[in-house]
Write a structure and sequence with these properties.
303 residues; two-stranded antiparallel sheet; 11 strands; globular; binds NADP nicotinamide-adenine-dinucleotide phosphate
């Protein structure tokens, strides 16, 4: 394992060299045949208040995190109408609009919010359309590059949910359609209605319940976006399951968890979330960690 830009003493503080640390080192993936992004992206859910509700404690720091991510080569940012709600999308616009060429913002619709940590799916077509219109406004876009159905609403026919997204695509408001938290069967059913270019499911080295979907996506050239890539920070913690192996290797636990994901599949597009510039820099430096097959196995065992 080698991490040229890191040391074990104080990694997050010491990584600042943008000439050597860049998300481009994670390799690229082309979403839907025409959107090429660096595989290591950024998830914006941690930029909101507690329970993904309301404003962050310090919105200026959130803006700095987003700008630093792009400076470090991140060109794939995951968000959702429901993060805040509205807060994450508006912060992205504040920090990055007018957007640099090639920046892909993937948002979502289909989950409503009743308070902190409360999420309820609503997939009625009129609601999905409203949320896409609001995301266009909140992000300051004329077309959303990747719109993911956040959850399939079990009370609404799938044809109505994916069908409405297809209509929005035909109208030019959405470029590509993705799904979130689905089975292979649900993906295949949705593919009868529209082209699906990405899936986003819970996946990290310690929780591989979506392994079959990952393999299926990899085989069919569909992007796989693992949410909770750091198990909400459990895998990044000092003293966590990867701490001992990290100490031996000179990488941080978070870098090992992310390097493991990047090695696991060429279709893997991790979107680690953080509210801190230091953690962001730590995470992007994962792209310079080279794992051998033995390292890959050891990390899986430890996790
Ligand atoms: N599709 C879905 O249903 C769904 C569900 C959940 C999330 N998501 C998406 O997935 C993204 C990633 O998930 P997530 O942000 O919830 O979880 P995550 O990336 O697994 O972990 C984020 C947590 O790890 C901590 N962390 C990050 N980097 C660290 C580092 N280098 N060292 C120590 N701690 C670190 C963060 O705390 P600090 O802020 O202190 O760094 C935060 O608490 C979200 O931002 C969102 O875009 C999608």
């Amino acid at each position: 394992m080698s991490t040229p830009e890191t040391n074990t003493e104080n990694t997050a503080q010491t990584i600042t060299d943008t000439t050597t640390i860049n998300a481009a080192a994670s390799g690229s993936f082309t979403i839907g045949g025409d959107l090429t992004v660096n595989r290591l992206g950024f998830g914006s859910m941690q930029l909101t208040g507690p329970g993904v509700w309301g404003d962050p404690k310090d919105p200026d720091v959130a803006v700095r995190v987003l700008r630093r991510a792009v400076e470090l080569g991140v060109d794939f940012i995951d968000t959702a109408d429901s993060y805040g709600p509205v807060v994450a999308e508006q912060l992205i616009k504040k920090a990055l609009h007018p957007y640099p060429e090639g920046l892909v913002i993937a948002t979502k619709a289909g989950l409503t919010r009743q308070g902190p940590d409360q999420w309820t799916p609503v997939g009625r077509p009129a609601y999905l359309r409203q949320q896409v219109e609001l995301s266009l406004r909140n992000l300051g876009l004329e077309r959303i590059d990747l719109l993911q159905l956040h959850r399939i609403d079990p009370e609404v026919p799938l044809e109505d949910q994916v069908g409405e997204l297809k209509k929005l695509q035909d109208e030019g408001k959405i470029r590509h359609i993705g799904l979130s938290e689905v089975s292979i069967e649900q993906l295949q059913a949705a593919q009868q209605i529209a082209e699906i270019v990405t899936v986003q499911n819970l996946y990290n080295v310690a929780n591989r319940q979506s392994e079959a979907l990952l393999d299926h996506a990899t085989e069919h050239g569909i992007g796989f976006i693992p949410w909770f890539p750091l198990a909400t920070g459990e895998l990044a913690k000092p003293g966590g399951p990867l701490a001992a192996i990290a100490e031996k290797s000179g990488a941080t636990p978070s870098q090992l968890a992310l390097a493991w994901l990047l090695k696991r599949s060429p279709a893997m597009l991790p979107i680690p979330g953080t509210s801190s510039v230091a953690h962001l820099e730590d995470n992007i430096a994962a792209t310079s960690v080279q794992l051998s097959d033995a390292d890959f196995e050891a990390i899986a065992q430890a996790a």
